[in-house]
Amino acid sequence: MPKDMTETRDIFERRESAARSYCRSMPAVFTKASGSELTADDGQSYIDFLAGCSSLNYGHNDPDMKAALIDHISADGIAHGLDLHTDTKAAFLEAFDRHILEPRGMDHRVMFTGPTGANAVEAAMKIARKVTGRTNVIAFTNGFHGVTNGALAATGNGYHRGGAGMALSGVTRMPYDGYFAGATDTADFLEAMLSDKSGGVDAPAAIILETVQGEGGLNAASTEWVQRIAKLAKDHGALLIIDDIQAGCGRCGTFFSFEEMGVTPDIVTMAKSLSGFGLPMAMLLVRPEHDVFGPAEHNGTFRGNTHAFVTARVAIEKFWADDAFQKELADKAELIHGKLTELANMVEGSKMKGRGLMQGVDVGSGELAGEICAKAYENGLVVETSGSEDQVVKILAPLTTPVALLEKGFEILLSAAETVISEKTAIAAE
Amino acid sequence: MPKDMTETRDIFERRESAARSYCRSMPAVFTKASGSELTADDGQSYIDFLAGCSSLNYGHNDPDMKAALIDHISADGIAHGLDLHTDTKAAFLEAFDRHILEPRGMDHRVMFTGPTGANAVEAAMKIARKVTGRTNVIAFTNGFHGVTNGALAATGNGYHRGGAGMALSGVTRMPYDGYFAGATDTADFLEAMLSDKSGGVDAPAAIILETVQGEGGLNAASTEWVQRIAKLAKDHGALLIIDDIQAGCGRCGTFFSFEEMGVTPDIVTMAKSLSGFGLPMAMLLVRPEHDVFGPAEHNGTFRGNTHAFVTARVAIEKFWADDAFQKELADKAELIHGKLTELANMVEGSKMKGRGLMQGVDVGSGELAGEICAKAYENGLVVETSGSEDQVVKILAPLTTPVALLEKGFEILLSAAETVISEKTAIAAE
Amino acid sequence: MPKDMTETRDIFERRESAARSYCRSMPAVFTKASGSELTADDGQSYIDFLAGCSSLNYGHNDPDMKAALIDHISADGIAHGLDLHTDTKAAFLEAFDRHILEPRGMDHRVMFTGPTGANAVEAAMKIARKVTGRTNVIAFTNGFHGVTNGALAATGNGYHRGGAGMALSGVTRMPYDGYFAGATDTADFLEAMLSDKSGGVDAPAAIILETVQGEGGLNAASTEWVQRIAKLAKDHGALLIIDDIQAGCGRCGTFFSFEEMGVTPDIVTMAKSLSGFGLPMAMLLVRPEHDVFGPAEHNGTFRGNTHAFVTARVAIEKFWADDAFQKELADKAELIHGKLTELANMVEGSKMKGRGLMQGVDVGSGELAGEICAKAYENGLVVETSGSEDQVVKILAPLTTPVALLEKGFEILLSAAETVISEKTAIAAE
Amino acid sequence: MPKDMTETRDIFERRESAARSYCRSMPAVFTKASGSELTADDGQSYIDFLAGCSSLNYGHNDPDMKAALIDHISADGIAHGLDLHTDTKAAFLEAFDRHILEPRGMDHRVMFTGPTGANAVEAAMKIARKVTGRTNVIAFTNGFHGVTNGALAATGNGYHRGGAGMALSGVTRMPYDGYFAGATDTADFLEAMLSDKSGGVDAPAAIILETVQGEGGLNAASTEWVQRIAKLAKDHGALLIIDDIQAGCGRCGTFFSFEEMGVTPDIVTMAKSLSGFGLPMAMLLVRPEHDVFGPAEHNGTFRGNTHAFVTARVAIEKFWADDAFQKELADKAELIHGKLTELANMVEGSKMKGRGLMQGVDVGSGELAGEICAKAYENGLVVETSGSEDQVVKILAPLTTPVALLEKGFEILLSAAETVISEKTAIAAE
Fold this sequence. Notes:
Four copies of one chain form a homotetramer. Chain A contains 14 helices and 18 strands. The first copy, chain A, is of the alpha/beta class. Chain A has two domains: 3-62 and 323-429, Aspartate Aminotransferase, domain 1; 78-319, Aspartate Aminotransferase, domain 2 (3-Layer(aba) Sandwich), CATH 3.40.640.10. In chain A, helix 9 packs parallel to helix 10. The radius of gyration of chain A is 22 Å and the shape is globular. Chain A starts with a helix and ends with a helix. The mean pLDDT of chain A is 96. Chains A and B meet through helix 1, helix 2, strand 1, helix 4 and strand 4 of A and helix 1, helix 2, strand 1, helix 4 and strand 4 of B. Strand 4 of chain A pairs parallel with strand 1 of chain B.
């Protein structure tokens, strides 16, 4: 390692908290990025199948967003505006109204929360509690909704829950779709528990779910199940919150992950790819009758990240003004499914997971999945695992990745898998 | 109002949540900003004595930060990097190490949390609970630490607490410095309660405080009191968390609000002006022995806002590499004190509040304070109130505001106060 | 109604809280009781198939206990002794040791809690949390453990939970044996949730269960299920608490409800029929290694009800010194089963519930069950319903009820059922 | 120790939980008691200045109660009646109505809770939360309200709180009368906190207090303070709960501890001496408009201890039908005050505590107080300490103790104190 790079890394060792994580398995110091490729300070380039955990659905430094942002900054456009009116916020809202809400017949209002997904989830849970006068929120096994205390109560992951250092309250956990693997339907179970006067589950303020559990192992709920849950929420006076932070913004092949399911969530939480450029931005959509917060009742200094409004508007106008992009996504989803089937075929007992451009393979163990990703990284591919045991190799490539680059990325991945598996087989045979 | 502006406002009415707030009393649609001035879409310009609630301590669009950010974007610098190593993060850490931590003898590690102050506070409270194995956090009357559930438990404001829709737990409230107005010392009280085996206050994981309560009405704690609290924390095995989100980054005249108090907090939370440019960025500083989170145990997609790292580095290098800026602040604090004394003299029973460039006048009623600010806004000054009854006219001008502009702003403010008060006197005399 | 009786009832109307309940459906003013019969102030006598909700397993005013108690009082024996040593406590402990613990190979210690079942449950949950350093207690659908806040969190009944006026915490609800009616095994489900690192169920301090859910509708767990749960508790570092308050003291045909299941609970809670005479007494049994409370760490003024010790000792010595009583119970259980089968045969779709002398019939609706019990009461039988919809006619006759009287009681019950059903059929036919 | 006694003690060692407490410092095995005297199995007799912690205000085995109870049992009176109507309950209610409530102009209803003080407190807090729809209950430093989770949250004692093994919620602690020792008035403080919109104390459901804190060190609130708190409760929409469990039933010289203070509590909790005979019995009094529980919404198997109703009725009729007893109490209170003044004079810096027949001396250290009580016990006096450091020698003699016996008891106590102090002085002088 050249001297400069050593020094650069030294500052992380000396001064950055032990909480840092991705940089441990992918230690390069990244300096530039464009489209679906990252470049490190040693000149090495990487294909990006992680996309900022689905925060870079349109790739790195999209030229149109980039140009608009540079123009905005050059012209002394507002960088920080609290929740004052700005021209950039108006333009974003108009684009979102015209191209997203209006065509989908959604009458929701937009609430800009603090610019993290967790903050949007906290706000959503608060609204549901305020609207219903109830405390209990139903959340599901393997759901991930953030790590601030309110949202963390709804998050299943024990490692993250442990970080709270205290028992969390206000949430009842229920099994997600498919949890009983073909036996009892989990929607039936939820219905039984909610209907049973002595079931011991308090009347819910909300039911919160992801249609595909990104962190939880790419578990994809069926349309029928989501519809059942939506109906249960309605029947029991609870709000339906769909957390579309990771699965939304086109990741599942449509703008919202749920838009072809025939359900209308009371609240939708959004973040990650919302700004289009990877800038911090989060918001929630809420049916007008549930828009009950008073002025600044839920607030936050950065609830109006105007730079993000600029790029988010471009993202909406560029990709969602017509259906061209969505069609492209369908083709890519198929390509990904094919390639992952090849991977799945290499590992006995493995399972295909997810849907759209949020697919992966459960290879049965976190160790194997981790080794495959590590080997791929060595060969120039950034890719990560997910699931309660990190057992799923997860593909979150930018939606805009050219087909050729997608194929190149899978070539690296499949070759890495082959190498790892044959090494393992060799060792086992000794 | 010209047609275009009506349309612009219409989208806010139609689609933005009722939670929006500042735009209600300051309805202009802002389009540009530079230094300490904002411009609206009707060409009207405003002097900014609010500075994004202390998020724009270096003014709007500082030319050096702006240039560095445009360069970064133009060169396809990383926009979003999760918590991967990036050259921009390294450069920020090095600057922060060299110019801030090192000279102040602080061995703290830096943890990048989600880019909101609330997220940093949540992380801080989690660390304290994990370190101590205790749940209880001591927080103070009129403290403000954010509105996500963990932080909200520590926030005093009843309106915000009510937004939770549920009882919050894990925090014991204690009276802040001066709460008994000259009678019992509140540090004595806290000591008595913590030492009393039947006092009913559980052993604390942490004591969290702001040295000046920005939202709580510019209550400034004395050095002696902060030292007493620091000692109590130590004696009772609790971590001392100083929330420097609003009072830090030079706002009190030094980089940290507490740096001349002779205390070493176990954890410091930072946000608001940290990026220097108004971009979302938050972090906490934690003593190495308390840096106990495992990798990603507290995580968040936007914990590495690289654009913010770029501007934050420039801010540190430009303003804090030597003591020139700090000296300038001392003069401005005096100027502000003088001008506010004039305001205080207009209102019988009013009180001077705060310190440094975070001062204000408690004019005795929220109604009067609100009318003064409204009149000032009419005349081109953005200024806000604070306190439990909004009774404090609060000055949070950018620290970089030229003296002439500061004076111009105060001219508007004092004239507004005069107008409002004479109108009130006239009405009362009728 | 004669004048006196009106007056007597008047005081209840005027001065007793609306919380009174049994007296609403059984409004007689009772004055005397002996064995399995109650007498009211109008001379009417009633066969008692309720037995103080299983608090009078040995009937009313058992002559031996009565004599011993009168002797004790006459001799100025201690009536109240806090938790001081008394000869009566020693005698009870010796009898309990010799006839109950010793023969069953149980090394548990006896902790006298406040004299209510809820108090014993609260103490048990506290011990489990103190032992494990964990908060979460697993409890089951339709479980009933009392209505003080700690115990109420573990109680399933929504009506009782609602009485708290606040959200209760520290408990995770799981489906009891048979909840999925033949599909997924609920022990499998619990195992999956506890083993899933992202299942969102915190590591448990305890699993608490009744082997037969008395209030919850006479659901009887299978031996296999209880063994599975016991193993899960052990594997996951949790204490197994068996709440034997209603099902214990012979009610299921053996002294403990679980003693033929091959499990050793870490804690057993006891109350109701413990004193033998209906006097308030509760205690818990705890394995020596979990006997972690310091002196009076859990306390209570009436934790040593010495009158109850007197009668409890007699009960143990009279009924449990040999196996004669237990054999008698087996015969009576069979008789009850036969009679209830007759009842079940009258109602289509009805289900037999419970085991031992804790059996009933789920007649499908609370309305029908209530009408049957009301009619029986009219004809001189005290009998009650249970279950989440009050849909189960529940037989809790004293274990000592002579066969002839049992038969007489069932005659009333079956005849009442016949009348009610034929009336309903007649109405339906009109 | 003769063989029998060793065996008796052996069973406690072998089988009773480590939670036992009083028997540790007073290890005699008690067998008989009459009036204010206890007899142990070795024939030794003790004067009782503890009275079952104020549960035996009328002494042991009062002859009239004893006779009535034996009559009741002999006649097969109901021993256990759930909450059915019984003649004994009616007779108690009538006596309580006629001699207690009616003459004091109290329109409260009587709710029989489970027969422990903690249970009554739990019910009271539940009612307050249900009535107000709020969660927060204000409780005071050094207050003791029981150790089940709901009541324990309101109890100040850290040792007992620690027994919960988890953080308790729903209660805000405030300083009791006199906590600031002459400086800030604690009622002023409470008012400031409740009135401060950012004080961080949620709107209270109830304020709960003891007028004399029995366990907390015999702190006696002034009439003015209690009136202030009552007014604050009313002004802030909270219910006033007076916990009269230890201080009531004549202990302070009147039936209720508060009856000469000019306040009308919304709820009064009672237990301890309520039955008159030391039998488990508890209840609460609630204003009719707050009697909001539905049937059995708060329930409990032993909520109708009919034996206790028998003795409780006699107690009311015998002692409270006219003012003779109350006058006697005034004289005895004076006698006790005089004797304790002698004790106080022996110890420099000691403080007189309490009022009525609930007085003591704070001798400055738990060690000294403990040694005095131990020495007194050796010489035939049962007496205990109280307070957060066990620093108060507390006199809770039966109210019926003859003057001569009171004097004899004090003779033992003062002589014990003299011995202990002179030994200490001698050691210090060495």
